[in-house]
């Protein structure tokens, strides 16, 4: 297998030494921002339980993306799914907890998603995602997301990449959830998109969805709001090597 090529169209892509260097340089810039705002690095399992994912209606919203794990020697009680986003473990690890109004963290995960078609570096079955996450008060999360947009612009400029923020339309909430209407009226996801139409980073507001479903509360007893700033690391390789 050569770098930048998929394996039999399965969406599995290798990186050359130079491509991996670019991944690490982008990640280093994000980590510098994370350190500056006080977001320590965490590590979470890439295997999630069906129970946890059901708690956030994952199989109603994104059934087509899931990779369920089946051992070679089948175990009927197995209920594990490979994570499709880096931030999920941050919420599931805090189920039933109380957090500060400004709880920050960062995580880098290998994520897996089933797609209709795959393109090396741009849309893969397996890819790396770096996220900076905030769990806290509504105002604090909004301020963090505003800062995240500026951080994305600054990182892109420092690396010689250009782009613009566009509103994304991911169906995050179930069709009968009132928050779906709010998402349409007040967009919850904005993607930083390069000139080819590739989204290389995003700013995501989940409102109090994860706070409610994972029973994460603030000191005053209200459910926490959450938001994340995400970077698809291989996608930055595509953008920077085309610039």
Model description:
The protein is of the alpha+beta class and 243 residues long. 33% of the residues lie in helices and 23% in strands. The protein has helices at residues 17-37, 50-55, 58-61, 88-92, 138-159, 178-185, 209-213, 233-242; strands spanning 47-49, 67-68, 80-82, 102-112, 126-136, 164-167, 189-193, 199-207, 225-232. α1 packs antiparallel against α5 and α1 packs across α8 (233-242).
Largest beta sheet: strand ordering? 4-5-9-8-7-6
Helix and strand content put the structural class at: alpha+beta
Strand content: 15-25%
Overall number of strands: 9
Structural Rg: 18 Å
What is the element string, with H for helices and E for strands?
Answer: HEHHEEHEEHEHEEHEH
Q: Helix amount, in percent?
A: 25-40%
Spans where pLDDT lies below 50 across 5 or more residues: none
The average pLDDT score comes to 89
How many helices does DSSP assign? 8
Mass-distribution shape: globular
Distance from first to last alpha carbon: 25 Å
Question: What distinguishing features does this structure have?
Answer:
243 residues; three-stranded antiparallel sheet; 8 helices; alpha+beta; six-stranded antiparallel sheet
What is the compact description of this entry?
Helices cover 33% and strands 23% of the residues. With 243 residues, it is of the alpha+beta class. Helix 1 packs antiparallel against helix 5 (138-159) and helix 1 (17-37) crosses helix 8 (233-242).
Element layout with pairings:
Blueprint lengths: L16 H21 L9 E3 H6 L2 H4 L5 E2 L11 E3 L5 H5 L9 E11 L13 E11 L1 H22 L4 E4 L10 H8 L3 E5 L5 E9 L1 H5 L11 E8 H10 L1
Antiparallel strand pairs: 1-3, 2-3, 4-5, 5-9, 6-7, 7-8, 8-9
Helix pairs in contact: 1-5, 1-8
């Amino acid at each position: 297998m050569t770098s930048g090529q998929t394996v039999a169209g399965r969406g599995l892509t290798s990186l050359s030494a130079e491509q991996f260097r670019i991944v690490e340089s982008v990640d280093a810039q994000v980590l510098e921002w994370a350190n500056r705002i006080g977001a320590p690095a965490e590590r979470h399992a890439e295997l999630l339980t069906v129970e946890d994912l059901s708690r956030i209606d994952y199989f109603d919203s994104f059934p087509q993306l899931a990779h369920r794990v089946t051992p070679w020697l089948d175990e009927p009680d197995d209920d594990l799914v490979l994570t499709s986003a880096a931030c999920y473990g941050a919420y599931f690890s805090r189920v039933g907890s109380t957090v500060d109004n400004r709880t920050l963290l960062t995580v880098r995960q290998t994520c897996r998603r089933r797609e209709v078609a795959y393109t090396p570096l741009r849309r893969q079955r397996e890819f790396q995602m770096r996220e900076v996450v905030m769990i806290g008060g509504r105002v604090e999360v909004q301020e963090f997301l505003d800062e995240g947009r500026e951080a994305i612009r600054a990182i892109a400029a420092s690396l010689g990449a250009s782009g613009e923020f566009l509103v994304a339309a991911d169906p995050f909430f179930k069709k009968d959830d009132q928050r779906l209407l709010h998402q349409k009226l007040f967009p919850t996801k904005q993607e930083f998109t390069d000139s080819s139409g590739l989204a290389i980073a995003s700013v995501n507001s989940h409102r109090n969805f994860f706070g409610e479903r994972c029973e994460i509360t603030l000191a005053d007893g209200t459910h926490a709001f959450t938001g994340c700033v995400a970077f698809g690391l291989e996608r930055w390789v595509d953008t920077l090597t085309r610039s």
